[in-house]
Structures are given as structure tokens and as C-alpha cells.
Design a protein that fits this description.
Blueprint lengths: L2 H11 L20 H11 L3 E5 L2 H11 L5 E4 L9 H5 L11 E7 L2 E3 L5 E4 H4 L4 H4 L2 E7 L3 E2 L2 H7 L7 E4 L4 E2 L7 E2 L6 E7 L1
Parallel strand pairs: 1-11, 2-3, 3-6, 4-7, 6-11
Antiparallel strand pairs: 4-5, 5-8, 9-10
């Protein structure tokens, strides 16, 4: 027997006995206040959170805080009048989105445990949009927050195309433990929670 086979044989003999899986694999959240937990998790992720009564407050916020010459793409039904480029033409080349300063999109489901928001391709309009924009504004109805990711997966609608959870601004620290914001996506993440 060679050394390789000898090692593999010893590993096979030392294999621990497996444990039986529990019959009930459901997860129970201990969160009492979903909105409060979601907001805290979002802030810990580096997101800015604003509670609003309706979408008109979001438009007012943008007009007050964003320079008018900046390119903003809205993919919200109520905001279609704000930029005709989304409704009037299809952009087949994501490079045309390179100068988007702000993307305003809607999320479907929020998760209190980590402030992740489920966003479908239909809500993004363009798959690259939430990742190429400098600043991502996400609108979520507060009553769409669930306690855990497991709860979200139970109710996520199945759609064709691309969908993902987005939580906070893009960040990485895998190179020499130096935190880089905006490495793979938006440099800032602003959540508007509609009460």
C-alpha cells in the first residue's frame, strides 16, 4: 500500500459517526419588532435608512439632495414620468449606464435579520443597473419585511431572469484587510421604507 492509500485508509477509519438530522428544520425568529431589527441591521451594513409615508417624500428627498444634472434612473411605476428614458427605449448595451449616478428601484421582500432586500430583474429593469450605479436607492414597503431568510425563500415569487438579495453598499476587505467601499457595486445604499 502506498503512502496515499495509507493516509486515505487511516482517514476512512477515523471518520466520526454521523448524526441524525432533526425532523423539524424550521427556524424560529426571536425578533419582536421586525422594522426596528431591519433598520438596525441596515445601518450596521452601512446603509442609510429613511422612513417615509409615501413615494412623494422620496421624490422630494431626491430633488432636495441630488444635483439636477446628475443622471438618475427610476424604475418605479409612480416615477415613470420622472425619466422617460426607461420607458421610451430599451438599452441593450449596459455600457450606456456607466454614468448613472443614482438608480431608484423597488424591492419585493426585506429580511430583518440582515437587511437584505429581494430585487427581481423586472424591478431592476437592467440587470447591471444596481451594480453599475454610484448610489442605489431602494424602496421597500415596511409590511414586506420578514424575520429570516428562510421566511423570505418560502414566499419569493418565482420569475424568469435574474434576481438577487442586495444588502448595503458594495464592500470588500479580502485584500490585505483593507475595506474598500464600492468595489463591485454601488458606493452607497439608501433604503426608503414606506410605512
Amino acid at each position: 500500500m502506498g503512502s496515499r492509500e495509507d493516509i486515505l485508509s487511516k482517514i476512512a477509519k477515523a471518520k466520526p459517526v454521523g448524526n441524525e438530522l432533526p425532523e423539524d428544520l424550521s427556524f424560529i425568529s426571536i425578533t419582536e419588532n421586525l422594522l426596528e431589527t431591519f433598520v438596525l441591521a441596515a445601518q450596521n451594513n452601512g446603509s442609510q435608512v429613511t422612513l417615509v409615508e409615501d413615494t412623494a417624500e422620496i421624490l422630494a428627498y431626491i430633488s432636495e439632495n441630488v444635483a439636477p444634472e446628475k443622471r438618475i434612473i427610476f424604475n418605479i411605476k409612480e416615477f415613470r414620468g420622472e425619466n422617460a428614458e426607461v420607458t421610451d427605449q430599451e438599452m441593450n448595451d449596459p455600457h450606456t449606464l456607466e454614468d448613472v449616478e443614482i438608480a431608484v428601484i423597488e424591492g419585493s421582500i426585506g429580511v430583518a435579520e440582515n437587511a437584505a432586500v429581494w430585487i427581481t430583474e423586472n424591478q431592476m429593469k437592467y440587470r447591471a443597473l444596481p451594480f453599475i450605479t454610484q448610489h442605489l436607492f431602494v424602496i421597500l414597503e415596511a409590511n414586506k419585511i420578514v424575520p429570516l431568510l428562510h421566511d423570505a425563500y418560502k414566499i419569493i415569487p418565482v420569475e424568469d431572469g435574474f434576481s438577487c438579495f442586495i444588502s448595503g453598499p458594495s464592500k470588500t476587505a479580502d485584500i490585505e484587510q483593507s475595506l474598500v467601499i464600492g468595489a463591485h457595486g454601488a458606493r452607497s445604499h439608501h433604503l426608503f421604507l414606506v410605512k
